[in-house]
């Protein structure tokens, strides 16, 4: 098992200091080690287009602002902190699950778009992806909150990567339901909280809805909804649905994460397990343990 935290500080600086016509190809170079993350997409993938679609930093505006943000990440020792966090988290997880097949992992840290209102406001300047085995990305803006949570954010995405690695839970796009996605977010937060505590471990946009019983009941009623096109609305919320072209369903931003945390916490309390012990527990079992006779 090898963890490679890519030196995107050097490569982002190369993009931001190059003549503008050269920047798209330099972004493609920056992302080239992550090409396998997009292996499930049809056709040839343009890595620069993926960067733009993923709320990555702009190359034709906000350049000075982005350079300053890069300097803040460097000053925060972001890359070394993330590498140490991943190594420590793998050690904790393998102790709990000794037969775990840990893949080689490439980790991409890249700045986001400070002009993107959804990214900066609704998503609080943070977007992560740990769904493709062997690849993890964090797109962020270095707010105080995001800098404080670097390790917890990285570990959250690592939990997804390990849950769906070979030998673990199978994410079948033809049959997966909202409940699996909700539970996976709750487990990832619970694992981050196990390592870094509640103040850092919760995904921030879900925190306002931890005690929202109306949102809980609404989302629990949709746990068996299938079709990944529905997940943005039911898991992340109406803001994400509107952003990504889905139909809003009346779910506040981040409420699905809050519901996932509540379900996972109930299950962990009932079973006496810690988050690391539940990495490969099927979501149906977690939901049944959390809701009991209600289902």
Automatic annotation (TrEMBL):
Pfam families: DUF2268 (PF10026). InterPro entries: DUF2268. One of its GO terms (molecular function) is peptidase activity. Keywords: Hydrolase, Protease. Residues 92-288 form the DUF2268 domain. This is DUF2268 domain-containing putative Zn-dependent protease. GO terms for biological process: proteolysis.
């Amino acid at each position: 098992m090898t963890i490679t935290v890519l030196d995107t500080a050097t490569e982002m600086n190369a993009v931001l200091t190059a003549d503008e016509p050269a920047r798209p190809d330099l972004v493609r170079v920056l992302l080239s080690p992550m090409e396998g993350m997009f292996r499930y997409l049809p056709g040839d993938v343009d890595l620069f287009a993926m960067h733009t679609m993923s709320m990555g930093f702009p190359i034709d505006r906000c350049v000075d602002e982005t350079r300053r943000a890069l300097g803040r990440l460097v000053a925060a020792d972001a890359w070394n902190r993330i590498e140490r966090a991943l190594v420590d988290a793998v050690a904790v997880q393998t102790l709990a699950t000794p037969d775990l097949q840990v893949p080689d992992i490439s980790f991409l840290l890249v700045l986001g778009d400070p002009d993107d209102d959804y990214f900066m406001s609704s998503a609080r300047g943070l977007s992560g992806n740990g769904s493709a085995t062997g690849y993890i990305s964090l797109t962020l803006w270095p707010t105080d909150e995001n800098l404080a949570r670097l390790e917890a954010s990285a570990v959250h995405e690592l939990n997804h990567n390990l849950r769906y690695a070979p030998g673990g839970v199978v994410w079948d796009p033809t049959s997966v339901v909202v409940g699996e996605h909700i539970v996976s977010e709750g487990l990832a937060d619970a694992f981050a909280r196990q390592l870094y505590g509640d103040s850092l471990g919760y995904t921030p946009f879900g925190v306002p809805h931890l005690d929202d019983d109306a949102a809980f009941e609404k989302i629990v009623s949709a746990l068996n909804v299938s079709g990944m096109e529905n997940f943005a609305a039911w898991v992340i919320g109406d803001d994400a649905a509107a952003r990504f072209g889905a139909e809003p369903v009346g779910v506040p931003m981040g409420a699905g994460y809050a519901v996932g945390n509540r379900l996972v916490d109930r299950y962990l309390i009932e079973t006496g397990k810690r988050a690391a012990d539940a990495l490969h527990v099927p979501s149906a079992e977690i939901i049944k343990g959390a809701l009991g006779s209600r289902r």
